[in-house]
Amino acid sequence: MSEKVEFELVSPERLLISQPVDMVVVPGSEGDFGALPRHAPMITSVRPGVIAIYEDGSVSERIFIAGGFAEVTEVRVTVLAEEAVKVSELNPEGVATRLRLAEEALEEADTDVTRVQAQRALVVARAMQAALGSAVH
Amino acid sequence: MPSLKDLRLRIVSVKSTRKITSAMKMVAASKLRRAQSSAEAARPYAERMERMLGALASSLAGQSGAPRLLTGTGKDDVHLIVVVTSDRGLCGGFNGSIVRATRAHVTGLQAEGKTVKILTVGRKGRDQLRREFGSLYVETYEGIGRKGVTFAEANNIADKVTTMFDAGGFDVCTVVYNRFQSAISQVVTLQQLVPLAVPETKADDSGEVKALYEYEPTEEAILADLLPRNLAVQIFRSLLESNASEQGARMTAMDNATRNAGDMINSLTIRYNRSRQAQITKELIEIISGAEAL
């Protein structure tokens, strides 16, 4: 496969990845989608989950993102991530702590605003846990 | 005429002042480099977000379902002004110019009969505006960017602004900050955040853009997520710019102070030497005339 798609992963703080890849699988809010070259242009929101980068028919890199947006054009995939960590660099203890904190925050939440925030944090933490699980297999 | 001892003491004290200002200059220079590079690193995100917003906005243009963060409330009676200053002084006119611009803006709005609310970031701006506009404060933040500005901090402020907007707290939101131009020049900038001034996608291809993208889930849903996010990004950007400007302003101010201290030391040293010489001459004359009198 000679044709490549330009993949960009950007966090608010900096440009994390910018490289041509064979395919990326992005966890879109309406389901995962794989973006190959000449994909139909679209804009979608992204749920917390794992982005998989494919090179030569296999996964070369897995990155956890805590939600964001993706823009796909025929030649380029741009993901605006809120938070991005390589799955291999996720720390199981850190994730467990985060999950616990999120659960506690949800229990203690007394207003709608804090409850929504806590729920969001919990979803992210759970997705992180799931990402860890998938890395082990 | 100060005595020799007084002069010596002054020279010592000015010298130690010069040491402090030149150290501060050095620190500001290295912080400036860091602030500048983080401001540059944040640019790609903002650019891409702008592109997506442009596409979305043009595809929604003229439709009634557009979120209010984009279109505004249709009124402009209540203004929220976000004032970004530093926590620390000793940075020349950095905070003064922000305060001056804010004061002019607020008085202008009040003269037009608008209600003004103020949200301050940074201790200096809060303190300097308190006497006149203290009653207009809705929230004050300090300690932002002490260890480099993080997005979480900007997000906090943006959350506050969004919640206020959703509760009908204001109609128009403007941020006042120092835009970084170079180490020696900062430009006071007033930028309107709500309703958002969307960069126009070029008129000739706006029809194309509309047809170009598919949206998942829907334009409205994405926009509803994207707009508060964009607000956070804009605030983040102004914090970064302000941080870089602050270091630049401090560097310049401290450079001037160091130079002035050097000049002062020179002139004091000359005075010291002159009066020492004069004293020696006087003593000699006394001895000689005493000897001659014998």
Automatic annotation (TrEMBL), chain A:
Q: Name one GO cellular component term.
A: proton-transporting ATP synthase complex
Give GO terms: molecular function aspect only: proton-transporting ATP synthase activity, rotational mechanism
- According to Swiss-Prot or TrEMBL, what is its membrane topology? Peripheral membrane protein
Q: Where is the ATP synthase F1 complex delta/epsilon subunit N-terminal domain?
A: 6-84
User: Mainly resides where?
Assistant: membrane
Carries keyword Calcium?
A: no
Keywords of this entry:
ATP synthesis, CF(1), Ion transport, Membrane, Transport
Q: Where in the cell is it found?
A: Membrane
User: Which protein family is it in?
Assistant: Belongs to the ATPase epsilon chain family.
Report what the protein is called. ATP synthase epsilon chain
User: Taxonomy-wise, where does this protein's organism fall, top ranks first?
Assistant: unclassified sequences, metagenomes, ecological metagenomes
UniProtKB/TrEMBL annotation, chain B:
Protein name as it appears in the record: ATP synthase gamma chain
Q: Which organism is it from?
A: mine drainage metagenome
In Gene Ontology terms, what is one molecular function of this protein? proton-transporting ATP synthase activity, rotational mechanism
Instruction: Report if keyword Membrane is assigned.
Output: yes
What is the annotated localization of this protein?
Membrane
Cellular component, GO, one term = mitochondrion
Membrane topology (UniProt): Peripheral membrane protein
Question: Which of UniProt's keywords are assigned here?
Answer: ATP synthesis, CF(1), Hydrogen ion transport, Ion transport, Membrane, Transport
Family statement drawn from the similarity comment of this UniProt entry: Belongs to the ATPase gamma chain family.
Q: Which HAMAP family does the protein's record reference? A: ATP_synth_gamma_bact
Matching entries from NCBIfam families are given as:
ATPsyn_F1gamma, PRK05621.1-4
